[in-house]
Amino acid sequence: MMTDPTATVSRPSGAPQARNASRDPAQDAAAGASIQKRAALSPAAQEPDAGSRLGAPAAPSLGRETNHADAGGQRAGHGDGAPLLLVENLGKSFTLHLQGGLSLPVVSAVSLAVHAGECVALGGPSGAGKSSILKMVFGNYRVDKGSVLVADHDAMVEVAGAAPRLMLRLRRERIGYVSQFLRVIPRVSALDVVAAPLRAEGVDAETAKARAGALLTRLNLPERLWGLPPATFSGGEQQRVNVARGFISTQPLLLLDEPTASLDAANRAVVIDLICEKKAQGCGLLGIFHDAETRDAVADRVVDVTRFSA
User: Fold this and answer.
1) What is the pTM of this model?
2) Is residue 219 left, alpha or beta, with left meaning phi > 0 and alpha meaning psi from -120 to 50?
3) Calpha distance 304→209 (Å, rounded)
């Protein structure tokens, strides 16, 4: 049995505004200088207008990354600006209470950045900690050490230890997530499941369902299934619903955990197109792709997670 106890952290003084819960004061001195340095290097991301949350400015990346076009780690074509996601010195371990409290290290000193209009892939074998990194960015896993900053209008908001209300708002407005498995309320139709993120953004029901239907059509889900709950679907059909729900919303940062794992070649090609469209719209993506063909088609950089072995 592994447990993941909660903890609270807060913004060190001098950092970009980070609206979250309070941190142990003993951590402030160590974290303050680091975040002050980041604040001096790049301003906080800003929304281009009230009608869209995409299009934050891009900037050169941090180290520890492999670039397909540039081995030095900086993605060609990106100018100076604030990242959508900034991860620094992130660490995580699990406590095995049934093994006498044994601590199982997962990752240590994870540092990376994601900018608008790029897709960063997490590379490495199964068990290296890729999904754990995504879950820490999304706030599902407690962060043992380090920082996860997400662009939120004129601020960089600390996800590590964020208050529940703040985390829910960030997921609604700033961070999207496509998981490996579809988890939805039973007896809700596939069309309503996909339309739900748009309804949460205030889009009217007719428009939201029309856009949901268009995405399901692109992903080759038969219209006769749209009115049925996804729990009755095959694994591949469920994943297509999951992909449609993740890609329909307009969060500027999108996390992808094996979005094509259960898809055939035709639908993998559709997902590749959807990712490229998101990039063109200014969305930043952080993803896991065990399918090398898909990864090579969409990733601008690959971060080797084995470098962060604890």
Assistant:
1) 0.74
2) alpha
3) 39
